[in-house]
Amino acid sequence: MADNPMLKFVGVPQAYPAKRTAELRADDFREIADRYAVPDAETQSARCSQCGVPYCSIHCPLHNHIPDWLRLTAEGRLREAYELSNATSTMPEICGRICPQDRLCEGNCVIEFSGHGAVTIGSVEKFITDTAWEEGWVEPLRPGRPTGQSVGVIGAGPAGLTAAEYLRAAGHEVHVYDRHDRAGGLLTYGIPGFKLEKEVVMRRIARLEEGGIVFHLSADVGGALPFAQLRAKHDALLVATGVYKARAIKAPGVGSDGVVDALGYLIASNRKGFGDQVPAFDSGALNAEGKHVVVIGGGDTAMDCVRTAVRQGAASVKCLYRRDRANMPGSQREVANAEEEGVEFIWLSAPEAFEAGENGWVSAVRASRMRLGAPDPSGRRAPELEPDSGFRLEADLVIKALGFDPEELPALFGTPELGVTRWGTLRIDHHSMMTSLDGVFAAGDIVRGASLVVWGIRDGRDVAEKMHAYLRARATEGRKAA
């Protein structure tokens, strides 16, 4: 019997692709680690235990066939590994880069539980698909047999792009409308290049364009482009706008110059990376160079901000978070990367006020220590103010990264009959994924609230199936009526 290429986890230690030194990577926006060489990818894939109940797949929102493509990689069958990886995901190389694997697949790996260190699933996934692009294995998007029906997708983020791809493959004419001048949503403008280099996103979008998907960029849906006009133009609509409204801080001085929202800051930085003219960056308003920066928040967006500030040449970068390290929502790997790059984390602390100089520009953050009290309704211990614990931090730039809420879409679209939940997300029938308006569907963060890219891809995949069924039924009814 041939030697089993798997189950090497006892004798082969876990090894991620080597990261560049913190000093080197703080000078640019390149990804911080290269991908595996072929022998390393095969060796690390061979650590998979091929367990009977693959918790990695169960805890992946896409239910990727992870053990199967790990085995194929270990056997050197990379094209088959790619095809299997691609079968469940429209963006496997993007998920391999930005998914919080420590909370999903790798965090639930059986050999992680045994103390041997998880299989490096995300790094292998990135390796497989990057290799596929280089070798020409990534197939063009081939439209299905034309149905004569048209679909409009509002939002060119992960959910919208995924749904557009599946609907085009089903034979529908697909038009994508987005507020930005480039497609990709937060993949393009929200996530920094050191986590996701933009060429990786752009080649995906180019593939969709070459497959016949029509992009309408800088589209002012609800303004110059009325929502009712889109409903009249298309046989079905998908709202996949994501959530973009920054959560506010209520504190004296919060309106001072130099107290900015995270998304505006990240968009400015990413636009500069594309070579765009960005007046707010060029003026210094959204540029951390030489500044003492304080970022408020503990999620992945906050980590993106602190690490961007380092690369812009900030004099110092501090992150305030009201809970402790163990209870932060962001990836622990991102925290470790930030610490390596010189970011100082001030746990169990929250801002109370923002001081400004005579010119109205922020000069300091006044904050207080917090402690964790009794669990709140979600089960997390709620932060409470520690009496008489105030302190002051010098700050020339304060970035608010407390998360995002939905925009008021019924008002924005001039469609008050569009139903929303008490959180402002769109209300859908979870069986059909349709909103309160016939033929108008919704998916992604605008339904579930701010979430992960991988969940947006999953929702896009699901809603495409529901929309295709709706369109088929509508076509059948039309033929019967004729």
Polypeptide structure, described:
With 482 residues, the chain is α/β, with parallel strands linked by helices. The chain has three domains: 22-135, Alpha-helical ferredoxin (Fumarate Reductase Iron-sulfur Protein, Chain B, domain 2); 150-243 and 406-481, FAD/NAD(P)-binding domain, CATH 3.50.50.60; 251-401, FAD/NAD(P)-binding domain. 35% of the residues lie in helices and 16% in strands. The protein has helices at residues 22-25, 38-45, 55-58, 66-74, 78-86, 92-98, 110-113, 121-135, 158-169, 186-189, 198-210, 227-233, 262-274, 279-282, 300-311, 332-340, 409-412, 445-448, 453-481, and strands spanning 150-154, 173-177, 214-216, 236-239, 245-246, 259-261, 292-296, 316-320, 344-346, 349-356, 362-375, 381-385, 391-394, 397-400, 404-405, 440-442. It has a five-stranded parallel sheet, sandwiched between helices. A five-stranded parallel sheet has the order 6-14-7-8-9. Strands 10, 11, 12 and 13 form a four-stranded antiparallel sheet that branches. α15 links the parallel β7 (292-296) and β8. The longest helix is centred in the last third of the chain and has 29 residues, at 453-481. It is globular, with a radius of gyration of 24 Å. The model has no long low-confidence stretch (mean pLDDT 95). Residues 26-136 form the Dihydroprymidine dehydrogenase domain. InterPro entries: DPD_II, FAD/NAD-bd_sf, FAD/NAD-binding_dom, GltD-like, Helical_ferredxn. Residues 151-455 form the FAD/NAD(P)-binding domain.
